[in-house]
Amino acid sequence: MKSLILAEKPSVAKDMARVLKCNKVNKGYFEGKDYIITWALGHLATLWEPGDYDVRYKNWNMADLPMLPEKLKVKRLKKTSHQLKTLTFLSKRKDVKEFIIATDAGREGELVARWAMLLAGYRGKIKRLWISSQTDKAITEGFKTLKDGREYQKLYEAAVSRAEADWLIGLNVTRALTCKHDVQLSAGRVQTPTLAMIVEREREIKDFVPKSYYQIRCQFEGFFGHWRGKKNKSTRIFNDNTASEIMEKLEGKKARVMKVEEKSRKEYAPKLYDLTELQREANRRFGYSAKKTLGYMQNLYERHKVLTYPRTDSRYITTDMVETIKDRLKALEGTSHGKLASEIAKKPIKLGKSVVDNKKVSDHHAIIPTEEKPVISKLTFDEKRIYDLVVKRFLAVLLPPAIYKDLTIITEIEGSEFISRGRAIEELGWKKVLGGEGRNDQEEETLPEQNLISPKVGDTLEVKAIKREKGRTNPPKRFTEGTLLSAMENPGKYVEGRDAKAILSQGGLGTPATRAEIIEKLIGSFYVERNGKTLTPTSKGKQLIEMVPAALRSPELTAKWEKRLEEISKGKEKRSAFMKDIRENAIELVGVVKADTKDFKHDNVTKEKCPMCGKPMLSVKDKKGRAILVCQDRKCGYRDEKKKKNDCGISVSKRERGMNKRLINQYSDQEDAVTNLGDLLAKFNK
To answer: Which intervals hold domain Topo IA-type catalytic (predicted)?
Structure first.
């Protein structure tokens, strides 16, 4: 008897086949003495389309909304139906004793496998492979410790609930908005509040009124200080006259040291990476989109096997992993970090709660290097960058804290207080590997640090120079993908009139695995544009937020949903109760759209006419920030891609180039055939 294994992708199946000695290669699967290994190709199944339930739903009509089928059903995906056919055949073999789910160890991976099993008609025993890396060692040990598939039934229920909620809310509100305004508009439980945050930030920037302020800087012997208010402790003076009065008082006066505070301070390394934090860092440092970073990480996990599972929301490891750390360090020998890794490996590994915490690891631990020795020459330039980030953060948490001596000096001149701050590093600790990396950008007012001498309280200091510096307050910064990921992870401060901590406890917008996809969808739907590193809402995006029901705009609703999905996966909430609320939400949200009186107006219309329907084209930007033209008629859907010139110097679109190429090939084939026929006739006549 054999076990049937379903992997997520062919590449993963191939690795498993090698490790499990399934050497017989068949169309769509590998086979060995004990195992048969097949694979999914993304999803093999999907929820029914509206038109599958009722023919009237094939047309978009407001009168038919909301669509609320009694039970949502699953069907095969046409593009992967051949692989589902293979799975169905294999699952019905008489020598198959059990089904092993070996898709990605997470909510969506569980959904891929369970829906495929459902359509394949498998009803037998189920086991689950749950591993966080694709190394030979991890695969071997994972198959020795397979879990009972029933332990993951609740995870599957959460996954189905997520899919059905997106169908019921997303499709109904999308159709309602589109029918109402005759424009292709869409809404969703994650994409809409995410877009709302971008639009609200743009409004804050537009409404921002800059204020001028002054700072007074005194240069003493060997260091400088800034004036600060005694009550509010701010170094900024927003009144010109007040600044002038202070300057007049200081002229020709000496300073007296009022306070000298010296502290030795420890600074610990930043935590290990989860997916969102790594996407943030890669965007900040390299300008990578969240989607690109995830792609590089997926390659490092699946193809090169040098990183652990990327789609994680944890920044901690578990206690049982500590004993594997020296093997992971040994794998770094021969890399640019090999010397430091060897030094760390020689000493006992001692880690605190900031690194090891079983309670803060649910499905997967933080992203760290595997025990697989990397072949650096096989990594692309971008993959090397991502791998380097993970390795450096991993090494940093294994090093002692950095130790500083911080010095603060308070001086006084004619009743005005001045503050000076300095820092001297005593032990580098983790900064040997990370230096100044790992700190988040700080928007709040900070004083410059300097190397300070250490005067005594009561000392009199000469004032070498006094300078008044003028500045202006800055508006909030536009979101980058990095800062937007942070906002999606912690949306509490974007909810008005509510306690932010309460909202934060409900969960973020989406999951680490889906946030990159949401950002790409907003850009692809022309609601948001990339302008360099920043994200800017379009007129279409702004108008959509005005028309979407208020409940769907707020992060509160979707954050609560995400929290409830988590509770379903843990068996703390019933799926039926959640879905009942989702159906009620769908009815309510469609009703709000129907009652709305706002109108949508295109303000990016050009003079160019659509070659398909003759209507004026709209000027938009694609995902790469390039200007393109699209037809404003949603039923037409024509896009004029970036044009290139043909051999005659005439501009030809991408679509036209494809048609021309096919015609050229067609006529070339005919010409070759005629030439060959002529040669044959000539030979025959001879």
So the answer is: 152-590
What does the pLDDT read at residue 656? Answer: 47
555 pLDDT more than 90: no
Reply yes or no on whether 309 is catalytic: yes
pLDDT reported for residue 645: 40
Collapsed DSSP state (helix, strand, coil) of residue 89:
helix
Residue that wins the pLDDT comparison between 448 and 368? 368
Return d(Cα 272, Cα 438) in angstroms, integer.
10
Cα 243 to Cα 247, 338, 538: the distances in Å are 6, 56, 42
- Fold assignment, 212-269+402-472: Topoisomerase I; domain 3 (2.70.20)
The CA-based angle 640-644-646, given to 5 degrees, is: 120
- pLDDT tens-digit profile of 467-487? 999 999 999 999 999 999 999
Q: Under 8 Å CB-to-CB from 192, ≥6 apart: which residues?
A: 545, 548, 552, 553
Distance (Å, whole) CA 350 – CA 361: 19
15-66 tens-digit pLDDT? 999 999 999 999 999 999 999 999 998 889 999 999 999 999 999 999 999 9
pTM of this prediction exceeds 0.85:
no
Compute φ and ψ for 98, nearest 5 degrees: -160, 160
Which residues of the chain are in CATH 1.10.290.10 domains? 275-397
Please report which helix (H) or strand (E) contains residue 610, including its range.
none
Q: Which two tokens stand for residue 98?
A: 């059990």
Locate CATH 1.10.460.10 in the chain.
163-206+478-595
Per the prediction, the chain carries an average pLDDT of 87
Which pLDDT score, from 0 to 100, does residue 322 have?
92
Contact 401, 268 (CB under 8 A): yes
* Rounded CA separation 422/398 (Å): 28
The domain over range 2-145 is classified in CATH as 3.40.50.720: no
Find all residues with CB under 8 Å of 109, minimum gap 6, and list them. 8, 101, 103
CATH class, range 163-206+478-595: mainly alpha
pLDDT tens digits for range 588-639: 999 999 999 999 988 888 888 898 888 888 888 887 778 888 888 877 878 8
Strands (E), 477-561: 528-531, 534-537
Q: Is the dihedral of CA 345, 346, 351, 357 positive or negative?
A: positive
Residue where the block lists tokens 């004083």 = 447
- Residue ranges, comma separated, of all CATH 3.40.50.140 domains in the chain are 2-145
CA dist 200 and 583 (Å) reads 28
Beta bridge partners of 408: 261, 421
Amino acid making up residue 421? R
Q: Whose CA is closest to 313, among 561, 508, 481?
A: 508
Lowest mean pLDDT among 107-121, 284-298, 578-592, 606-620: 606-620
For the chain, the residue count is 686
pLDDT confidence tier of residue 648, bands split at 50, 70 and 90: very low
Q: At 648, phi and psi to the nearest 5?
A: -90, 0
Phi, psi of 323 (to 5 degrees): -70, -15
| Residue ranges of the chain that CATH labels 2.70.20.10 | 212-269+402-472
CATH match of 275-397 with 3.40.50.2300: no
Distance CA 39, CA 46 (A): 16
Catalytic one of 57, 214, 309, 494: 309
Report the Cα 460 to chain-centroid distance in Å.
Answer: 55
What percent of the chain is modeled with pLDDT above 70? 90
The helix (H) or strand (E) run that includes residue 49 is none
